[in-house]
What does this fold into?
Amino acid sequence: MIKLTQHFSALAANYDVALSDVWGVTHNGISAFPQACEALSRFRAGGGTVILITNAPRRGAAVSRQLDQIGVPRDAYDDIVSSGDVTCGVMAERPGQSVFHLGPQRDISIFDGLDIRFAPIEEADYVVCTGLFNDDVETAESYRDMLGIMRRRNLFMICGNPDVVVERGDRLVYCAGAVADLYASLGGEVLYAGKPYRPIYDMALARAEKARGAKTPLPRVLAIGDSVRTDLKGAAAFGIDCLFVTAGIHAEELGGRDDPDLQLLAGIFDDAGAAARAVTRALVW
It folds into this structure.
């Protein structure tokens, strides 16, 4: 039977490194969660290292500037690793090739400094999907015709954000992962650059090693997140524990933010074939 852990402090001594999700754990896309930020800051004050690990399709430095704007303090984390960082690494291995960017203009900085040129979908060598052009009104189905063109040309897609949905304030909006999943269902080749896939975890632990001056054994690493698909499954596949936050993207599915149905959650974990080391409503020290 799942029991709620009320305080992160009850677990903290068991870990040296926390790989914390960002959106849904430290903020909701509009404003920071002060108690979560305090919990990460206190973990660091006690000798722990916090690497924020996010499926944001922008480089870590850009994510950090966004966090400044919405009130996530820099003393809450040591470093940030994003799916944008992983995406840049993949693009760097394809110098001189042309790219069709499927995503909003706000993500364009991901291409800075890379040897690429942009091209229309009918001419591009491959596609980088960072999101929907207008996620306020569009869904993955809005792109079915475009994906059909890509499939006929056998275009390779890099998905710069494997999240399917994310919270924006009190509602959910679709992300690049939804478009990539549809393309994959049509037979398209997709590389998912972020969670739950291994490359982003390898990069995060390399940053933690740099911060601490030594490697951290996997049993001393804790993932913190609110998504079964990305955070829980990613941690399980990588072989690290997970602290699962219920007041995130699964909140409505579980009956609300304040009183989650833990029996429903157990069923979701069973369906996912993974279980969290601990479950909490929200990250609180």
Remarks:
- The domain at 57-212 is CATH 3.40.50.1000 (Rossmann fold).
- The mean pLDDT is 94.
- The first helix runs from residue 9 to 12.
- The longest strand covers residues 49-54.
